[in-house]
Design brief:
The chain is of the alpha+beta class and 388 residues long. It has helices at 11-23, 28-43, 51-61, 64-77, 98-107, 119-129, 164-168, 171-177, 180-190, 211-216, 257-260, 273-280, 340-348, 360-372, 376-387, and strands at 110-112, 133-135, 143-144, 158-161, 195-205, 230-236, 247-250, 285-288, 295-298, 304-306, 313-322. The protein folds into 2 domains: 3-77, no CATH class; 95-387, Jelly Rolls (Sandwich). The chain has an 8-stranded antiparallel sheet. It starts with 10 loop residues before the first helix and ends with a helix. The relative contact order is 0.17.
C-alpha cells in the first residue's frame, strides 16, 4: 500500500512528507521501509512475538543515514509536543536544563546528571526490585528474592528481570518514567512523541570473563539496534567503582560508528577494546563510575558496554524510550498497577503508552519462552562455546 493512502497520513502530513522525500532524493528502499512502518503502526504488529524476527533484514541492512531519514519522517507523522505530567520532583533535572542535555545527546551521545536520586527513592526502588523475578540469559529458570547478599549464587555474570511489568509496578519507577521533564527531554531528542518501550533491571557479578559470556551479557563494545531512534536512562542502584562494572561509552560514535568500522561491520557485531581504541581514540572511551543514585541518559546506538565485574556486584535500572515500535523485540506493559495519575496521562498522551496492551501477562510469558528456550542442539553449542 502506498504511504499516501495510510490512515495515519492526512493531507498536511502528506505534503510535508512528499517535500522531505523530494528534497532528500530518497529512494525506493526507504519508501518501502516507511510504508512497512505505517502498516506496523496501524496493525500493532509490533506486539506479536516474532515481529522483530520478520523485520530484522531491514534492521541489519539500513545505514545510519537511512535511520536518520526514517526517524525524520516519523517526526513529521508524530511531531514532539509539550507533555504535562503530575510527576516532576524525583528525577534530578529541571526544565531549564532540557536544552543543554539534548545538545549533549546530539553531540556527545550522552549526559551524566549532576544530582543524584535521593537515598529514600533508591531504597524504595531496591526494596521493590527484591520482589521481582530474575533469570540468566538463555535460561527459563526463574529466580526470586535476589539481593546484594544472594546475587553471587547465580549461574552466570548477569541476572535480568524476567517481566518488565513487575518493574513498572514499582511506584517510584512510574514517577521517574513519566516525569514531565524527562518526557519532554526525550521528546526533544527524538524529535517526536516518545514511547516508553522498556523498564529493565539487572544484577551483574564476577563469575566469568570468558568472551562468550561477556558477549551474551553486553560486556563487549556494541551498538544497540532495537529501534530506529531511541534513548536509554541508566540508574545506578549500588555504588559503582572501577571494580564492579562501570558503564563505558565511546563519545561521538552514535552517528559515525557504522561507517568508521568498515564495510564488513554490522551494528549487531561485538567489537574488541583494542579496535575501538585504535579507530576512535582512547580519550573518547569514557568510564562512568558513580554513587548510588547516579543517572546517565544515553543514545546507545553509539558504542558502549558494561565492563565485567571484578569484585562485589552492581544493580542497575534502565528505562528506554523510542520514536516508533518498529523492530520491537522486547516485552510489553499492561495497564494494571498504574498510579491514578499515570492512567490520566495515558488518556491525554496515548502514544507514550503504545507498548501497553491487555492480557500482558500471557503475552510476556509467551515472549519469555520464545526468547529463552534452547533446543538440545543449541545447548550443546553453548557448552562448546564456553570451552573455546
Amino acid at each position: 500500500m502506498s504511504w499516501k493512502k495510510s490512515s495515519l497520513v492526512n493531507a498536511r502530513k502528506s505534503e510535508s512528507l512528499s517535500r522531505y522525500i523530494d528534497e532528500n532524493k530518497l529512494g525506493s528502499k526507504i519508501i518501502e521501509i516507511f510504508e512497512d512502518i505505517l502498516e506496523t503502526e496501524v496493525s500493532k504488529d509490533y506486539l506479536t512475538i516474532d515481529h522483530n524476527k520478520r523485520k530484522v533484514h531491514f534492521n541489519m541492512s539500513i545505514s545510519t543515514e537511512e535511520r536518520i531519514h526514517l526517524s525524520n519522517m516519523i517526526s513529521i507523522l508524530n511531531p514532539k509536543k509539550e507533555i504535562h505530567s503530575p510527576f516532576y520532583e524525583i528525577f534530578p533535572m529541571n526544565s531549564s536544563e532540557i536544552e543543554g542535555v539534548r545538545i549533549n545527546l546530539e553531540t556527545k551521545g550522552f549526559h551524566v546528571f549532576d544530582s543524584l536520586l535521593s537515598a529514600e527513592v533508591c531504597d524504595h526502588l531496591v526494596n521493590g526490585i527484591e520482589s521481582v523475578t530474575f533469570h540468566t540469559k538463555k535460561s527459563t529458570k526463574k529466580i526470586k528474592g535476589i539481593s546484594k547478599d544472594t546475587v553471587g549464587k547465580i549461574n552466570g555474570n548477569t541476572a535480568w528481570a524476567t517481566n518488565q511489568q513487575d518493574i513498572l509496578s514499582i511506584e517510584e519507577v512510574q514517577k521517574i518514567a513519566f516525569d514531565e521533564n524527562l518526557l519532554n527531554l526525550v521528546g526533544s531528542f527524538l524529535g517526536s512523541e516518545p514511547i516508553l518501550c522498556q523498564t529493565n533491571c539487572w544484577w551483574s557479578v564476577a563469575n566469568s570473563t570468558h568472551r562468550s559470556n561477556l558477549s551474551t551479557n553486553a560486556q563487549l563494545f556494541h551498538q544497540d539496534t532495537e529501534y530506529l531512534k531511541f534513548v536509554k536512562v541508566f540508574i545506578y542502584l549500588t555504588d559503582v567503582n572501577d571494580n564492579n562494572g562501570p558503564h563505558q561509552y565511546v563519545q561521538g560514535t552514535s552517528k559515525i560508528a557504522q561507517s568508521k568500522l568498515g564495510e564488513d561491520y554490522k551494528p549487531s557485531n561485538r567489537v574488541e577494546d583494542n579496535k575501538v581504541a585504535e579507530i576512535f581514540g582512547v580519550d573518547n572511551i569514557l568510564t562512568f563510575t558513580g554513587k548510588r543514585g547516579s543517572v546517565i541518559i544515553e543514545d546507545t546506538f553509539g558504542l558502549h558496554k558494561g565492563t565485567p565485574v571484578v569484585e562485589d556486584s552492581r544493580l542497575l535500572l534502565q528505562l528506554e524510550y523510542c520514536n516508533s515500535l518498529y523492530f520491537h523485540s522486547g516485552y510489553s506493559f499492561g495497564f494494571e498497577n498504574l498510579e491514578p495519575e499515570v492512567e490520566k496521562l495515558a488518556e491525554t498522551n496515548p502514544r507514550i503508552f503504545s507498548n501497553f496492551t491487555n492480557q500482558v501477562a500471557l503475552l510476556n510469558e509467551k515472549k519469555f519462552q520464545f526468547f529463552n528456550n534452547r533446543t538440545f542442539t543449541q545447548k550443546v553449542k553453548d557448552k562448546i562455546k564456553s570451552y573455546l
